């Protein structure tokens, strides 16, 4: 793999193309049902077949493809910055989930629109490319859809893998198919990784070293989460002067540990309030049952309740309000980490001024947490007792807590230079004029 000559398609790639054609009717039925169940109009559902529901704008079009909510939102700040530097550039975001489409619509940068991506079949992808004719394609994190990549490259669209992150399991799987891995990675003109480990993995998988550029995690420079000031004022007024800590993005099997820690904390801090925000709001009933079983009083956000002076747990089982909760308290435990789930984005609470407590199962952010822990911006715990001790220390020793918050803020501010470098690298690949 060298220069601009793509590696040759492999037998495995050909088999994939054949298999995708065979299973496409079943895949279409499944994804269409999910979108229809969400209440989307048929025009939008058919975007998965490559049928556009919007016209193609006249300027140079930069296409971002992301998997779901986190990946989609991570590129909005980048898009905004690129739009400021390239005044004629238009933007298209594709993502597969209705939730991501809904949240993107609320935070859409100028000259940007959203579509659902085509299924990875020849017909759907070609239909999509024929309509949109992107001048640059940017695939976010680990979205390696073979036909989407190959057919876009064949259509003359330069491609970038941005914020690249691959699990160890995924890397090992690709290494067993080196020719196909090399062929797929050769579709990219540039691969910008989250960290040096991913850069090394991509090179080991066959990516050309001169196309790999280690970067930082895009989520570290995303715009802060929105804050609903009216809600914040009401909740803050209801809680009063009581201390508050937050357990955010918790999963099944984690709330028990959080509630055990809270029970211990109440022994020394009887007026302490826990704001519990499950990762999936539909788990509200299960979370409430756990709170009740723990013998704690509960008020539930999804029922329009506010925390009273005697509320020990405020269950925030709603979508899109986490930014408001981070504005309520800078003392945050971030879930997805007490079990081997991989952890969640620590940059969102830090952008709001918080310091972060995490469990040990944060492998998706391992390098980030190693650096944050070394700086004193994050604390790692492995049990309910350790969680209670860490929350107590930050409650009782404000100087230590403020130092952790300051370290987190300094870490975030250092990431902006990386964003500017990424913008320059992407714009350098954008043709000076719209391709015919």
* Count of discrete alpha- or pi-helical segments spanning 4 or more residues: 19
CATH superfamily of the largest domain: 3-Deoxy-D-manno-octulosonic-acid transferase, N-terminal domain
Shape: globular
What top-tier CATH class of the largest domain fits best?
Alpha Beta
Q: Percent of residues in beta strands?
A: 5-15%
- CATH topology-level fold name of the largest domain: Rossmann fold
Q: What is the structure about, briefly put?
A:
With 436 residues, the chain is α/β, with parallel strands linked by helices. The protein contains 19 helices and 14 strands.
Keywords:
single chain; 436 residues; alpha/beta; Rossmann fold; 7-stranded parallel beta sheet; globular
SSE order and pairing:
Blueprint: H1 11-37, H2 42-45, E1 61-65, H3 69-74, H4 76-85, E2 90-94, H5 98-106, E3 112-115, H6 122-132, E4 136-140, H7 146-154, E5 159-164, H8 168-175, H9 178-185, E6 190-193, H10 196-204, E7 212-214, H11 229-239, E8 244-250, H12 255-268, E9 273-278, H13 284-293, E10 298-300, E11 313-315, H14 322-328, E12 331-334, H15 347-351, E13 355-358, H16 366-375, E14 378-380, H17 384-396, H18 398-414, H19 416-429
Parallel strand pairs: 1-2, 1-4, 2-3, 4-5, 5-6, 6-7, 8-9, 8-12, 9-11, 10-11, 12-13, 13-14
Helix pairs in contact: 6-7, 11-14, 12-17, 17-18
Describe this structure in words.
- There is one protein chain.
- The protein is an alpha/beta fold and 436 residues long.
- The protein has two domains: 11-23 and 32-217 and 416-429, 3-Deoxy-D-manno-octulosonic-acid transferase, N-terminal domain (Rossmann fold, 3-Layer(aba) Sandwich), CATH 3.40.50; 229-414, 3-Layer(aba) Sandwich (Rossmann fold), CATH 3.40.50.2000.
- It has helices spanning 11-37, 42-45, 69-74, 76-85, 98-106, 122-132, 146-154, 168-175, 178-185, 196-204, 229-239, 255-268, 284-293, 322-328, 347-351, 366-375, 384-396, 398-414, 416-429; strands spanning 61-65, 90-94, 112-115, 136-140, 159-164, 190-193, 212-214, 244-250, 273-278, 298-300, 313-315, 331-334, 355-358, 378-380.
- The strands form two sheets. The chain has a seven-stranded parallel sheet with strand order 3-2-1-4-5-6-7, with helices on both faces. Strands 10-11-9-8-12-13-14 form a seven-stranded parallel sheet, sandwiched between helices.
- Helix 11 (229-239) packs across helix 14 (322-328).
- The chain is globular, with a radius of gyration of 23 Å.
């Amino acid at each position: 793999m060298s220069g601009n000559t793509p590696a040759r398609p492999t037998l495995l790639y050909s088999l994939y193309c054949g298999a995708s054609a065979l299973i496409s009717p079943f895949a279409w039925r499944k994804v269409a049902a999910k979108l229809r169940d969400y209440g989307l109009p048929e025009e939008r559902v058919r975007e998965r077949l490559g049928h556009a529901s919007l016209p193609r704008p006249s300027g140079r079009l930069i296409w971002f493809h992301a998997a779901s909510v986190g990946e989609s939102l991570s590129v909005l700040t980048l898009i905004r910055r690129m739009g400021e530097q390239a005044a004629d550039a238009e933007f298209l975001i594709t993502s597969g989930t209705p939730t991501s489409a809904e949240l993107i619509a609320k935070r859409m940068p100028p000259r940007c629109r959203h579509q659902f991506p085509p299924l990875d079949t020849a017909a759907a992808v070609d239909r999509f490319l024929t309509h949109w004719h992107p001048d640059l394609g940017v695939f976010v994190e680990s979205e390696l859809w073979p036909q989407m990549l190959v057919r876009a490259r064949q259509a003359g669209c330069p491609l970038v893998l941005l914020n690249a992150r691959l699990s160890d399991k995924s890397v090992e799987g690709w290494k067993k198919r080196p020719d196909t891995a090399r062929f797929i990675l050769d579709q990219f003109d540039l691969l910008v990784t989250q960290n040096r480990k991913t850069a090394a993995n991509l090179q080991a998988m066959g990516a050309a070293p001169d196309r790999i550029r280690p970067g930082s995690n895009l989520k570290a420079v995303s715009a802060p989460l929105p804050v609903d000031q009216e809600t914040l004022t009401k909740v803050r007024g209801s809680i009063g002067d009581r201390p508050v800590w937050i357990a955010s993005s918790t999963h099944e099997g984690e709330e028990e540990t959080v509630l055990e820690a809270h029970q211990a904390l109440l022994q020394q801090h009887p007026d302490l309030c826990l704001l519990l925000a499950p990762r999936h709001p539909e788990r509200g009933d299960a979370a409430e049952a756990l709170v009740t079983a723990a013998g704690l009083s509960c008020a539930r956000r999804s029922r329009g309740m506010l925390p009273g002076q005697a509320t020990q747990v405020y269950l925030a089982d709603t979508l899109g309000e986490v930014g408001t909760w981070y504005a309520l308290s800078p003392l945050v435990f971030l879930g997805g980490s007490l079990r081997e789930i991989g952890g969640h984005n620590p940059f969102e609470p830090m952008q709001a001024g918080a310091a972060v407590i995490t469990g040990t199962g944060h492998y998706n952010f391992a390098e980030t947490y190693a650096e944050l822990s070394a700086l004193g911006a994050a604390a790692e715990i492995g049990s309910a007792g350790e969680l209670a001790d860490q929350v107590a220390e930050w409650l009782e020793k404000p100087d230590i807590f403020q130092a952790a918050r300051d370290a987190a803020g300094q870490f975030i501010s250092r990431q902006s230079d990386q964003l500017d470098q990424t913008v320059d690298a992407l714009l350098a690949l954008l043709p000076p004029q719209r391709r015919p």
